[in-house]
Amino acid sequence: MKEILLAFFGSLSLAITFNVGRNRFVWAGLSGAVGWIAYSWLYEITGQVIVSTFVGAVCVGLYSEIAARCLKCPATVFSISGIFPLVPGIGAYQTVEYIVGNELAQSASKGIETLASAGCIALGIMLMSAVFRVMKNVKKGRKAT
Protein backbone atom coordinates (compact mmCIF):
# COMPACT_ATOMS: atom_id res chain seq x y z
CA MET A 1 0.00 0.00 0.00
CA LYS A 2 2.91 2.31 0.79
CA GLU A 3 4.34 1.88 -2.71
CA ILE A 4 0.98 2.69 -4.31
CA LEU A 5 0.70 5.88 -2.28
CA LEU A 6 4.25 6.83 -3.21
CA ALA A 7 3.47 6.23 -6.90
CA PHE A 8 0.33 8.36 -6.54
CA PHE A 9 2.16 11.24 -4.88
CA GLY A 10 5.11 10.96 -7.28
CA SER A 11 2.78 11.30 -10.24
CA LEU A 12 0.81 14.02 -8.48
CA SER A 13 3.97 16.03 -7.85
CA LEU A 14 4.94 15.77 -11.49
CA ALA A 15 1.47 16.97 -12.50
CA ILE A 16 1.86 19.93 -10.14
CA THR A 17 5.30 20.67 -11.59
CA PHE A 18 3.90 20.66 -15.13
CA ASN A 19 0.90 22.74 -14.01
CA VAL A 20 -1.74 20.50 -15.56
CA GLY A 21 -4.61 22.20 -13.76
CA ARG A 22 -6.02 21.76 -10.29
CA ASN A 23 -9.05 19.78 -11.43
CA ARG A 24 -6.73 17.18 -13.00
CA PHE A 25 -4.15 16.71 -10.23
CA VAL A 26 -5.85 13.75 -8.56
CA TRP A 27 -6.54 12.08 -11.92
CA ALA A 28 -2.89 12.43 -12.90
CA GLY A 29 -1.85 10.94 -9.57
CA LEU A 30 -4.21 8.01 -10.12
CA SER A 31 -2.52 7.39 -13.43
CA GLY A 32 0.75 6.62 -11.68
CA ALA A 33 -1.00 4.51 -9.05
CA VAL A 34 -2.78 2.43 -11.72
CA GLY A 35 0.48 1.79 -13.54
CA TRP A 36 2.29 0.86 -10.35
CA ILE A 37 -0.48 -1.50 -9.22
CA ALA A 38 -0.29 -3.35 -12.55
CA TYR A 39 3.51 -3.41 -12.46
CA SER A 40 3.83 -4.65 -8.89
CA TRP A 41 1.05 -7.22 -9.25
CA LEU A 42 2.62 -8.77 -12.34
CA TYR A 43 6.13 -8.53 -10.89
CA GLU A 44 4.95 -10.51 -7.85
CA ILE A 45 3.62 -13.23 -10.16
CA THR A 46 6.35 -13.41 -12.81
CA GLY A 47 9.42 -11.80 -11.25
CA GLN A 48 10.24 -10.25 -14.64
CA VAL A 49 10.87 -6.52 -14.73
CA ILE A 50 10.49 -6.03 -18.48
CA VAL A 51 7.11 -7.74 -18.87
CA SER A 52 5.81 -6.03 -15.73
CA THR A 53 6.94 -2.63 -16.98
CA PHE A 54 5.24 -3.19 -20.33
CA VAL A 55 1.93 -4.15 -18.70
CA GLY A 56 2.20 -1.19 -16.33
CA ALA A 57 2.79 1.14 -19.27
CA VAL A 58 -0.16 -0.35 -21.17
CA CYS A 59 -2.36 0.26 -18.12
CA VAL A 60 -1.11 3.85 -17.86
CA GLY A 61 -1.78 4.33 -21.58
CA LEU A 62 -5.27 2.88 -21.31
CA TYR A 63 -6.07 4.98 -18.25
CA SER A 64 -4.64 8.09 -19.92
CA GLU A 65 -6.73 7.69 -23.05
CA ILE A 66 -9.93 7.06 -21.09
CA ALA A 67 -9.28 9.93 -18.66
CA ALA A 68 -8.46 12.26 -21.54
CA ARG A 69 -11.82 11.60 -23.15
CA CYS A 70 -13.72 11.92 -19.88
CA LEU A 71 -11.95 15.12 -18.77
CA LYS A 72 -11.57 16.57 -22.29
CA CYS A 73 -7.84 17.18 -22.25
CA PRO A 74 -4.78 15.64 -23.95
CA ALA A 75 -3.81 12.12 -22.94
CA THR A 76 -0.19 13.19 -22.43
CA VAL A 77 -1.29 15.04 -19.29
CA PHE A 78 -1.90 11.67 -17.66
CA SER A 79 0.59 9.47 -19.49
CA ILE A 80 3.67 11.58 -18.74
CA SER A 81 2.92 11.79 -15.04
CA GLY A 82 1.71 8.18 -14.99
CA ILE A 83 4.90 6.64 -16.33
CA PHE A 84 7.03 8.50 -13.80
CA PRO A 85 6.95 5.66 -11.22
CA LEU A 86 7.81 3.10 -13.91
CA VAL A 87 10.94 4.84 -15.20
CA PRO A 88 13.93 2.55 -14.53
CA GLY A 89 16.13 5.11 -12.78
CA ILE A 90 17.58 2.65 -10.30
CA GLY A 91 18.51 0.36 -13.18
CA ALA A 92 20.49 3.13 -14.85
CA TYR A 93 22.19 3.94 -11.55
CA GLN A 94 23.11 0.29 -10.96
CA THR A 95 24.47 0.02 -14.51
CA VAL A 96 26.85 2.91 -13.88
CA GLU A 97 27.72 1.53 -10.47
CA TYR A 98 28.67 -1.83 -11.99
CA ILE A 99 30.76 -0.09 -14.66
CA VAL A 100 32.63 1.90 -12.02
CA GLY A 101 33.16 -1.30 -10.01
CA ASN A 102 34.54 -3.00 -13.15
CA GLU A 103 31.77 -5.63 -13.09
CA LEU A 104 31.20 -5.53 -16.83
CA ALA A 105 29.00 -8.62 -17.16
CA GLN A 106 26.55 -7.34 -14.55
CA SER A 107 26.65 -3.83 -16.03
CA ALA A 108 25.78 -5.17 -19.48
CA SER A 109 22.94 -7.25 -18.07
CA LYS A 110 21.50 -4.39 -16.02
CA GLY A 111 22.00 -1.93 -18.90
CA ILE A 112 20.09 -4.12 -21.33
CA GLU A 113 17.31 -4.61 -18.78
CA THR A 114 17.12 -0.84 -18.23
CA LEU A 115 17.00 -0.04 -21.94
CA ALA A 116 14.40 -2.75 -22.52
CA SER A 117 12.26 -1.37 -19.69
CA ALA A 118 12.46 2.13 -21.14
CA GLY A 119 11.51 0.77 -24.55
CA CYS A 120 8.59 -1.12 -23.05
CA ILE A 121 7.28 2.06 -21.48
CA ALA A 122 7.34 3.83 -24.84
CA LEU A 123 5.83 0.83 -26.62
CA GLY A 124 3.01 0.44 -24.08
CA ILE A 125 1.99 4.09 -24.28
CA MET A 126 2.21 4.14 -28.09
CA LEU A 127 0.23 0.91 -28.37
CA MET A 128 -2.70 2.27 -26.40
CA SER A 129 -2.56 5.57 -28.28
CA ALA A 130 -2.64 3.72 -31.60
CA VAL A 131 -5.52 1.49 -30.49
CA PHE A 132 -7.62 4.49 -29.49
CA ARG A 133 -6.73 6.34 -32.69
CA VAL A 134 -7.81 3.35 -34.80
CA MET A 135 -11.02 3.02 -32.80
CA LYS A 136 -11.71 6.72 -33.37
CA ASN A 137 -11.15 6.36 -37.13
CA VAL A 138 -13.38 3.28 -37.29
CA LYS A 139 -16.10 5.11 -35.39
CA LYS A 140 -15.72 8.14 -37.66
CA GLY A 141 -15.91 5.87 -40.72
CA ARG A 142 -19.14 4.28 -39.49
CA LYS A 143 -20.76 7.69 -39.02
CA ALA A 144 -19.82 8.73 -42.54
CA THR A 145 -21.41 5.65 -44.04
Describe the structure.
It is found in: Cell membrane. Keywords: Cell inner membrane, Cell membrane, Membrane, Transmembrane, Transmembrane helix. With 145 residues, this protein is an all-alpha fold. The protein has one domain (2-140). It is built from 6 helices and no strands. The chain has helices at residues 2-17, 25-46, 49-71, 76-83, 89-100, 104-144. It is globular, with a radius of gyration of 17 Å. The mean pLDDT is 93.
Main sheet properties: none
Please state roughly what percent of the residues sit in beta strands, choosing from under 5%, 5-15%, 15-25%, 25-35%, 35-45% or over 45%: under 5%
| Mean pLDDT over the residues | 93
- Rg from alpha-carbon coordinates: 17 Å
Short description:
The protein is an all-alpha fold. It has one domain.
Q: What are its keywords?
A:
145 residues; mainly alpha
